[in-house]
Write a structure and sequence with these properties.
284 residues; alpha/beta
């Protein structure tokens, strides 16, 4: 079995160095060379996504996975790779670092796993009241403390938990809201790195950001997009090792005729369903 449908031109410097997420050549008509962003209008149109079959371009990068591994577990390769790259590789998380992860969805939880693998000393995760099931799993994955952001002051709580020192690494994986970016600047200690990975939407601005603190604290802020070979390989190795109960992230499986329900469940719009990771299996 093979996974990781990422497509590049195969010849540019980005592709040849493994950073094919940055390829801007790819297939004709594509701006970003990844299956997830290729429209069906591009021939042959079978680029995956709620389909029983998909076309693999000759330059597709494939990764083998252990036979017999449950498909629900294999499907976690992408969020786990996100945690590896965004929370460890890009910020350079070191043994003993204090890491604050803003957001407790799939990629927030994967970030907890990743920084624990990297030897982080203290891990703090934020979420909302409706995320109680996710915050509980964050603790199980290794978080030392969680913050309910719509009940507590995130900045003040991090200061309390760190004795006023703040965080060495802050990873924002929240969607839409820009307040976590302003919070990240406040809770980052001097010399810290802030990773911005949560999509906020076109035209989003940050009204509460005190920009001078970026200079005074000498902060490094990095935007990240997708994953690559360096992240997929350790993610798959971790999944195959079964050393952590990653299967607890997967909560729902749907058939192809239930796509609408799957999307609404993942979005938290189905009463009584506490989703984290949802997958669609066309053969069901």
């Amino acid at each position: 079995m093979a996974v990781e449908p990422v497509l590049g031109c195969g010849y540019c410097r980005a592709c040849l160095t493994g950073a094919y997420r940055r390829c801007r050549t790819g297939r004709p008509g594509t701006a970003i060379a990844s299956y997830a962003f290729i429209p069906t209008s591009v021939v042959p149109g079978l680029w995956g996504g709620y389909a029983e079959y998909m076309y693999l371009d000759p330059h597709t990068v494939m990764h083998k996975v252990a036979p017999g591994l449950p498909i629900e577990l294999v499907a976690l390769y992408q969020p786990i790779a996100a945690g590896m790259r965004w929370a460890v590789q890009e910020p350079g998380t070191k043994i003993g670092d204090t890491v604050v992860i803003l957001g407790c969805g799939q990629r927030g939880l994967a970030s907890v796993v990743a920084v624990r693998e990297a030897g982080a000393g203290r891990v703090i995760v934020t979420g909302l009241r409706r995320d109680a099931h996710k915050l509980e799993l964050a603790h199980e994955f290794g978080a030392d403390a969680t913050i309910v952001a719509d009940q507590e002051d995130t900045v003040e709580r991090v200061r309390e938990l760190t004795g006023g020192e703040g965080a060495d690494v802050v990873v924002d994986v929240t969607a839409v809201s820009v307040q976590p970016i302003a919070d990240a600047v406040e809770i980052a200690k001097p010399g810290a790195t802030i990773i911005i990975a949560g999509v906020k939407g076109s035209g989003a601005t940050i009204p509460n950001l005190v920009s001078d603190k970026l200079l005074i604290k000498e902060l490094t802020i990095k935007g990240v997009w997708s994953q690559d070979l360096r992240a997929f390989e350790p993610a798959l190795a971790l999944i195959e090792s079964r050393k952590r109960p990653l299967e607890k992230m997967h909560t729902h499986t749907f058939g192809l005729n239930e796509v609408d329900l799957a999307v609404r469940t993942l979005a938290g719009r189905v009463e009584g369903q506490n989703a984290i990771h949802v997958m669609v299996v066309p053969k069901l």
